[in-house]
Each structure stands twice: as C-alpha cells, then as structure tokens.
Automatic annotation (TrEMBL), chain A:
PANTHER family named among the record's database cross-references: ABC TRANSPORTER ATP-BINDING PROTEIN ALBC-RELATED
Source species of the chain: Oceanobacillus aidingensis
Family matches, as CDD domains: ABC_DR_subfamily_A
Descriptive protein name: ABC transporter ATP-binding protein
Origin superkingdom: Bacteria
UniProtKB/TrEMBL annotation, chain B:
Protein name: ABC-2 type transport system permease protein
UniProt keyword annotations, A-Z: Membrane, Transmembrane, Transmembrane helix
InterPro entries noted in UniProt: ABC_tran_2
Listed transmembrane segments: 27-47, 67-93, 120-140, 147-176, 188-207, 228-249, 255-275, 326-348, 368-388, 414-434, 440-462, 482-504, 510-532
Superkingdom field: Bacteria
The keyword DNA damage belongs to this UniProt entry's keyword annotation: no
One Pfam family linked to the record: ABC_tran_2
Key word Flavoprotein present: no
Naturally occurring in which organism (per UniProt): Oceanobacillus aidingensis
Amino acid sequence: MIEISRINKSFDGHHHIIQDLSLTIPDGKIVGFLGPNGAGKSTTINMMTGILPIDKGTITLNGIDIDKEPLKAKEIFGFVPDRSDIFLRLKGLEYLNFIADIYQVPEDVRQEKIAYYTKQFSIDHALGNYIQSYSHGMRQKIMVTSVLLHDPDIWILDEPLTGLDPKSSYALKQMMREHADKGNTVFFSSHGLEVVEQLCDEVAIINHGELLFYGTIDELQAEYQTDQSLENVFLELTNDA
Amino acid sequence: MMRNTWTITKIMLRMQYSSAGKQSNTWIYIIVSLILIPFFIMLMQGIHSMVTHAYHMLAEVNQESMLLGLALLFIAAILFFLSFIMILSAFYFSDDITAYIPLPVHPYQLLVGKAANPLIYNYGIAALLFLPFLFMYGSISSAPILFYVYGFILFIIFPIIPFSLVAVILMFIMRYVNIAKNKDRSKIFMGIGSLLFVILVNVLVRLNMDDAAMLDTFTTYMQEQEGLLRMITMIFPPAYFGAGSLHFAADWSGLLFLLALLAVFILCVLLFIWAGQRFYLKGVRGMSSGSKGNLSAKASQKLTQQRSILKTYLLKEFKMIFRTPAFLMQCVIQALFFPVFITVILFLDMGNDLAALVSAAPEKNLFLTLFMISIFLLSTNVTASTAISREGASIKLNLFLPIPFQHLINAKLYVAYLMSMLPFLLLIGVGIYVNIPIHIFIGWIGITLLYNWLAVVINFFIDVYHPKLHWTDEQELFKGRFIPFFISLGQIALFGMITIILWNMNITNVYLIMLILLLSTFIVTDIAHIYLRKKVSLKTLQNLGN
C-alpha cells in the first residue's frame, strides 16, 4: 500500500508544483496516474521514490516512511523512470547485474530471472551490447526487466509502456495484472488513456499539483454523469478540451 | 555564408557555456583571487629575474633574439600538445555534431564553430604565457612602441598556426580510422594514439641529436647574426618570423618578418578550411557503436556474479570512466600525459643528468620540488571535480536505488582517489630510477597520499555545490567550468606559497620541513573531511540542480 498524505512541493519556495496532495493506493490494485504535461505526475513519483525531498507531508510505502527510512523503503519498491538514457555505457547484462547486486539478489535467482524475462521481452540477444546502442523500446525493456529481478511488493512505473512494441506491451500488462492479483501494488503514470481504461482498477487524475479525482472509471463516469470515454472525461476535467 | 558560420559558432559556444555562471559564485572567485594574486606576483618576479639574466647574457654575444624565439617555440609546443587533446575532444569525441549535420551548412562552417571553444582556450593560455613575457622583454630591451604593436598582432595570429596544423593532421588521420567497428573504442584508440604520436616525435627528435655535432653547429651559428635564433627555430619557422618581427620591430625588416608570418598564418587557415571541407564529415559520420550482442553461457555466468553494493558501485564508476572517451581522456589520459612524457624523456637521455641533479640538490629543495609536483598533479585531476556531474541529469535516478548514502559518496571519492594516483605511480617509478634518497622518497609518498585525499575532498565538494548536470554531450561537461579550474589553481597557489616561504626560510632540516608540511596538510584535510561529512547529505543530492 502507498499512502501519500498532504504532500507539498515547490522549487523556489513560492511556485507550488504539488499542493496538499493526498492519495491512498491499496494493495491488489493497478492504479493509473493521469494528468496533462506539467501537472506534477513525475514530481509526485520522484517524491515517492526518494529522488526528490518532500517539502511538507509524508509518503509511506507498506507503512515505511520514504523520508525517515529511505533505504528500507527503497528495498520494497521497483521503479521504472520516465527516462531510459541512464547507465548507457554499461552492457545490458551488466546493468541487470548491477541492479541485482544493489538489491542483493542471489546469483542463481538472478541468472534464472534474467534468462526468463529477457526472453519474454525479446532482448536476450542484445544483453552483450551497450545500452547506448539500444533503441528506446529496448532501453525501456531493460529497465522493466531490472524491476522484475528483485521481485518488489510495489511497482512504481513512470510511463512504462512508451516505446514498447505490441508484444512486449502485452507481456508487461499481463505481468502488471498478475502482480496486482497476488495482492501487490502497481502504480503507473501514463498518457495512454485507452491503456489506463483497459488495465487499471482505479485512476488518479491530477492537474496543477492538485488531485482532481481518485476512484474507478465507473465512479468517474457516475460523478460526471456521463457514459463518455475516459479520454473525453479527462479532457473535460483538466480543461484541455 | 558568414552569417551561418557565425550563427553556428554562437550556438555551439552557448551550448558549452550555458550552465556556467548561473549561480552567484562571486565569493569563490574573490577568495581564490586573493590566493592567486600573491602567488602570481611571486612567480612573475622569479620569471622576470630569469629573463633579465638570460637577456643580458645573450646580449653580450648579440644573440638576445634567441630568447624571443625560445619563448615562441615554448608557446607553440604547449599549444601543439593542448590542441591535440582539445581538437580530438571537440571535433571527434563530442556527439553533438550529429545534430548539426542535417543543417544546410558547409562542413567547414561546422568546423569553424567547433574550433571556437578550443581556440578560446588557446588564446587564454597564450595570454598567460606570452603577454607577460612580451612586456618583460620589452621593458628590459627598452623596445619601441612598434614592438608592442607587433607583439599584439603576434598574439592574435600565432596561436592559430599550431592549432590549424594539428587540426589538419588529425582530420586526415580520422578520415581513415573511421573504418573501425566500435565508435567509442576507436575514439579512445585515437586519443591515446595521438598522445603517443606527440611523444614519439619528441623521442625521434632527441634520438637524432648528436651532442658533439650540436656543439659544433652551436658554435657556428653563434658567430652569425641572429644565428642562435635561426638554429633553434629551424624546427618551426613561424617562431623565427615571429621573433624576427619583434626583434627588428624598429626596422623595416620587422615588418617583412611580420608579413612572412602573416602569409604562413593565411596559408594555415586556408589549409584548415580545405581539410575541413574535405575530410571532417567523413571522419565523424558513419561510425557504428554496435558489437556482439549474444553472450556465451560462460560469459553470462561471469557477468552475473554477485558482489557487494560498494564493490558493484565502484565497478560501475570505473566502467563509466574507462568506457566514455571524453571521461577517459580528461580524467586519465590527460593526467598521465605529463608523467609519461617525463618518463620517456628521462629514460632516453636525461636520466643520468637528473640523477646527478637529485644527488647534488639540497634535500630540502628536493623534497619541496617533489611536493610541488604532487600538488600540481593531484589538484588538477578532474575525476573528483566531475564525480557528480559525470552522471548528468540522471544523477538523481541513482537515488531511488537502496544504496546506503555513505557508499554512494565513498565510491565516488575512492574512484577519484585511485584515478589521481595513476600518474603519481609513474612518477614513483621515475623517482626510483633517479635514486631519490629513501627518506625523502618515503616522506614524499606519505605526504602525496595524504594530500591526494584533501584534493579529492575539495574537488568533490566543489562538484556537489556547483555541478554541471544539464549537458547533452559528455564533452560539454568539461567546457566553461571555471570554478573547479579556479579552485585547482587556488590549491596550487596556496601550497605553492607555503613551499616558496619554506624554500626561503632558514630551516635546513628536511625532517622538520616534512613535519611542517605533513601537519599542515593533515589539519586542512581533517577540516575538509569533517566539513564534507557534515554538509553533504542525502538531501543535498536530492536538491541537486533545483
């Protein structure tokens, strides 16, 4: 479970990026995190993962405060960042092993998982290449594989499906579903509203750093008294229509 | 056409200098200047007295023009060497060129843009070396006003000559090494290769020198008007023309010398543009970075061995430095060049002379000289001052990983410490070869090991507080970063002043000198270390670049 409680973030002390945002993401659910560009999605995710400090408020992951016990909290989630241009001068396999070392995954387990997941994502043939030579989609796949290696309870994924080919996208969606069905948490941001509609149990919509809605798609349609698609409601809600 | 060239140049410069000076760093510049000014004055006084002595000695035999030639040769040699590194970095190691290739501009226009930044550095160095000499020589020789006018023209055109020549050589070579399969590897190979080339040229020149024949030539040339100048500048005629123009500034022949130099300059520029148009893009395009992707079961097994968090992070840092051409050049190869150069020269022909000098020099002076060499080598190493910046904008992404904060910091400090030690290890070899007395040797190693930690901590600290994270190309990281440069100068100046003071004091006991330096270095290191532990926290890294 992820509990975000009245968090605030500003970069210059005046201009608020996130204002009093509260959100509880329960176990066993896939939650889509939506919002237009610059709404504060990545900032929220960066605070959840300890990349950015929180100005005010708290975030706990399975009861562990990311600010007070960062190491312990970081061990229980896996994160796919929105940019995949990191560790470019490591080979694919070196990167996976680096992550496995950091999370102290036993040697036999890591070898088995690397073999399995890289085959699933069809990148097993490229593990000896530098990440720099990978296409965007392949980089994304290696990042996703790294999260799967240490089997974290919580998955936090920032735009995980961007750049994936249909087969890999399907495989990842299946994995997300299976992970949530086992009672774990999957939280991901996306601009692909169709995917969110099809995959998520609940959605959280933010704009200008404030939470506009949190609930199921049915609840969203009920609240706005419409049977229109998520896309239309989203556009209306964020005043971008 | 000119407008496009200017626009490209402006944009390229802006890309490299954009993140410099965003924060208010006035206090750093003030403090460092306060340290630098007295050091610079002391240094200039020393050089002035050397130039005066040399001038009067040579003037007695009517050969004082040799001094001008020597200065220009020295500057040309420095610019040759630096141009090799800077041109490789700017022209070939930076990938931003791919963004400009689709634009409707000529290759030479891109080249002019690319050349702007290395040329700014060349002018900076020329200003530092040539202008003070010009005024010293002018005042000693009571030179006419035209001497200074010609001197200024020389300052403008002279640095471009060695730069263009090096650029033409490199463009020609790169045109043909581009066939290599791995882009990074061929860049690294080229970088090391061209430095070895510089050393090789020096070795060949020295091997061809016959001492007895040299003495004969020397005597012959000495009897001729400006004979020594002609003799020493034979290897690089532009220095002859330059020196001639200054020496005969009051005369018509001075103008002729200047015109000759101007002709060489125009020729070099035209050659540069022609070579750029013909070879440059062929050298940067079409390099592939592909390699064998499939790994054997054995190789996979080896690559998936379990390691501790600190060890794995250390390995990652080393791999990043050794696999990124720009990092490898700046952090390792460049730092190694000077010691390698010295080693080769020593082993060739000066080993015995230097050993004799070492045994004849007072122990105190020997120790202080060795100490200053260490200070210079360790302060200028850029591994620590780019420890954070090397990761670029993705530095924060390391923070989601459950790596203990202290491991993160220590890994960066240890890597910087070890990288800085590489050139020093070579110097230790030289030390053994020239028979440095064992007690001095041990004292030198001890203080160097300690000082290295201080330099690493200071440089790391500067990078934490003034990182350059938003580079689009690794090469940009090393451009326009004046604070680490000034801090390095400040370190050299501070310890340089201490050394000069100790040198001039009446203490002859080398152990006492060692103790004073060791204690003062230890105290400063301890303060720096405590400060680092206190000030740099996880929050500091989280707030980087905000």
